[in-house]
Give the backbone structure.
Amino acid sequence: MTGVLLVGHGGFDRLVYRTDLPVPIPGAGEVLVRVRAAGVNNTDINMRTGWYSKSVTEGATAVGGEAGLVAASVEDAGWTGAPLSFPRIQGADACGAIVAVGPAVDPARIGERVIVEPIFRQASSAVGPAAEPVYFGSDCPGAFADYVSVPSINAHRITATLSDAELASFPCSYSAAENMLTRADLRAGETVLVTGASGGVGSAVVQLATRRGSRVIALAAPEKAAEVGSLGATCVLPRDADLVGALDRQSVDVVVDVVGGSQFPALLQVLRRGGRYAVAGAIAGPIVALDLRTLYLKDLRLLGCTIPEPGVFKDLVGYIERGEIRPLVARTYPLAAIADAQRDFIIKRHTGKIVLLLEA
């Protein structure tokens, strides 16, 4: 089969396009998915560059994304803090069709159009015993290949009439977004501040928070403000805005952050007493300044979010099929042009998702 191997930490030369890879064989409880489209995510680039290593303190920059950040000997560059083995197939977003099933899976599933839930919570012969959740495309082979074996329970049948590229834009970003809103218990009538609102996760948060009946304040580049507003944001501020000056102190119920960096203290300052801060990214920098007095005197809750709450992905499939949220695909590339797609992704001039298409 055709696929892209990540052969080590570094630049785009670490991505090797191959046409002679073996087709995986589904094990017990698994299905074999013919991948039609695969989304590009920060995780793909962060793992290639070694950004998850604790030795890295800067944000995820275009320069770092081009050349890589650390030597290939880094021992903590996996997203869990563990070392990575190479070669590996990445890709956390997949849309495709089931073409074969392993033992203990109903053969009637063959032919189903599916999207893959990217967190595997059960043991699988493809990934070994799963005492901890396994992340699709990071801890096990992912979507950057013609075929992939996944647990049957993670291959969700989808009946929406959207294109493969549109469906592939949902799994990782939208489940991360919905999980942050679920963890923060965002309710109708509350105000949420969303950083990085033009990116894949941020644009998903804007839609999903609007769906909940919340008021959305979004941070985005001025040239992207109109598009972010069209997703449901009632107010779009520049991403480097003086938040304390632009908003009343204690004016926000929930902050959903995928940026981090120097603006972190201001995010806590605009939260109301008892407010909730949820984070699932740090593209502007992982090391932030925290005044503990702000945290405890305002009775704030800080929520780190990676593994989605049970039921989040099933709910997401329902939102898609009922047309309650819409895909936002900025551009598509063929799988062979993965370096071009990642280069486009890291300069951050797009709104929504960049998706790779695999040949039929």
Notes: The longest strand covers residues 30-39.
